[in-house]
Amino acid sequence: MIEKKRAALTVAAVNDGNGQILLNGFKPNKDIITDFEPAQGTIASILNHGKENAITCREIANITGLPFRRVTRRICAERREGAPILSDCHNGFWLAEDEAEVRRCINALHARAVQIHKTARALEKLL
């Protein structure tokens, strides 16, 4: 098996002119209690292309200052808005490099959905 090296995560820190430091367009804030605001940037904007450059949800939460659950909700929303954010259980999240990669992710999602449905049906039989 060929081992790929993960690319270093690129984080751009910029002063917005009002004394706020923005990380890739995000205003980190560990006390955020509302949903992610579009003005804070997008999750897609901090992701790199390719599975070998994937970053975990925890890393995204650290960069953005968003709670873990808000990160996953935001990723779901961005995907539904058309962002090509792919993921798997081992590597984390990344942007699609090509159509074939998107198709592999779609197939994996469908397979997971089938398994979840089978489990739900088995539990329903208990009732």
How far apart lie the N and C ends?
46 Å
CATH topology of the largest domain: Arc Repressor Mutant, subunit A
Shape: globular
Second-tier CATH architecture of the largest domain? Orthogonal Bundle
Stretches with pLDDT under 50, minimum 5 residues:
1-15, 19-24, 27-36
What's the story with the biggest beta sheet? Answer: 2 strands, antiparallel
By CATH's scheme, which homologous superfamily of the largest domain applies? Winged helix-like DNA-binding domain superfamily/Winged helix DNA-binding domain
Helicity range = 25-40%
The count of domains is 2
Q: Describe it for me?
A:
It is a single chain. The termini are far apart. The protein has about 130 residues and is α+β, with helices and mostly antiparallel strands. The protein has 2 domains: about 1-95, Winged helix-like DNA-binding domain superfamily/Winged helix DNA-binding domain (Arc Repressor Mutant, subunit A, Orthogonal Bundle); about 100-125. The protein has a two-stranded antiparallel ribbon with strand order 1-2. The chain has a two-stranded antiparallel ribbon with strand order 3-4. The chain contains 3 helices and 4 strands, in the order ββααββα.
